[in-house]
Design a protein that fits this description.
The chain has 152 residues and is of the alpha+beta class. Helix content is 31%, strand content 24%. The protein has helices at 3-10, 59-81, 106-121, and strands at 27-30, 33-36, 87-98, 128-134, 143-151. Helix 2 packs across helix 3. Residues 5-141 form the Endoribonuclease L-PSP/chorismate mutase-like domain.
Length: 152
């Protein structure tokens, strides 16, 4: 089944590629892989929330934001690949969680990204991953996700 068909079955419409907030490009292809830059949970060009997970932002909301980040990453990768159906699978997810002191639920937050990629790609969505707590993220975002995809 094609990725575009699977997205339609799931009722997922990929967003427009998020504009970079600094001096970088959203994604680069090299050697059969597509590396995305860190994606924030932009929705229509705006962050849905700012603040630290475990303080101003709940872990549940942050998990949903990580899902949005993954879809933004897929949109960026599809743009570079020449379409979403040219992406064969996921290699690695790197997740960063702006964490309040004492918050240790980073893996659960980044599951939002991992789970949606698994729903979209099935067995080809299995991936290596890091889920890291950080003091600050760009623009005060609670979460940032980068993904390495495999080209078809």
């Amino acid at each position: 089944m094609s990725v575009s068909t699977r997205l339609a079955e799931l009722g997922i419409e990929l967003p427009a590629v998020a504009a970079p907030v600094a001096a970088y490009v959203p994604a680069v292809a090299h050697g059969g892989l597509i590396y995305t830059s860190g994606q924030l949970p932009f929705v229509d060009g705006a962050l849905p929330a700012v603040g630290k997970v475990g303080a101003e932002v709940s872990a549940e909301d942050a998990k949903a934001f990580a899902r949005t980040c993954a879809l933004n990453a897929l949109a960026a990768a599809a743009d570079v690949a020449g379409g979403v159906d040219r992406i064969a699978g996921v290699v690695r997810v790197g997740g960063f969680v702006g964490s309040a002191e004492g918050f240790t639920g980073q893996p659960g937050v980044i599951n939002g990204a991992s789970e949606v990629l698994g729903e979209i790609f099935g067995d080809e969505g299995r991936h290596a991953r890091a889920a890291v707590g950080v003091a600050e993220l760009p623009l005060g975002s609670p979460v940032e996700v980068e993904v390495t995809f495999r080209l078809a």
